[in-house]
Amino acid sequence: MNPVSERRKFFILLSLLILPGVILIYLSKADHKFQVLPYYGEKEVVYTAGSDVADTVYHTVPDFSFVNQNGETVTFNDFDNDILVVDFFFTTCPTICPIMTKQMTRLQWMLDDAAYKDVKFLSHTVNPSHDTPEVLKEYGEEQGADFATWTFVTGEKEEIYEQGFEGYLLSTQEDEAAPGGFLHSSYFVLVDRNRHIRGFYDGTSTNEVDDLVVDIKMLMKEENMRDSEKVQS
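Request: output the structure for the sequence above.
Response:
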């Protein structure tokens, strides 16, 4: 056989043996990149005093004080270090609310695992005059809600509407012409541990709620990566 061919065959074989190991070493040392969810709402670029170092401050959902289905006061402190899925509804809603509630129940079932213990669900009534804590608790029980992770809240109407519009960027209002007397968004809002809004999903759509599950997992990876970087620094 031609010596050149023998030499070529030798180097090809050597490359096939060595290349996988080289790739594995490279991958183990490389910074792994993954998709990061967007931030929603207004943002502001802030510069450190006396330097050109800039930092982006994203829209932050403000704190709140509402009453849950057990008659207990609830604030953001009760969800410290949690990822939140938020929506607005009312128990006598004749249109989209029953669908949204069924989708939220399905979402809770899909994430019924210890790996998702830091994912919580928060539903605000837009009809607080009717939806008392007792009514919310009965409604939640009828829908199969696990109150360990799913909280229903009521409170002063104006404060709920302001929290919806200013905090979660959703429309919430009383409207006599609307079915049931109230208008509110059908969206589920994904909120990270720092109270930043990271996604909107149509709560009447099975496909979009499935997308929400995927994004929750992605957000958890992002949060875990950030926690690891803090420990290393």
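Residues 10-33 have pLDDT under 50 and may be disordered.
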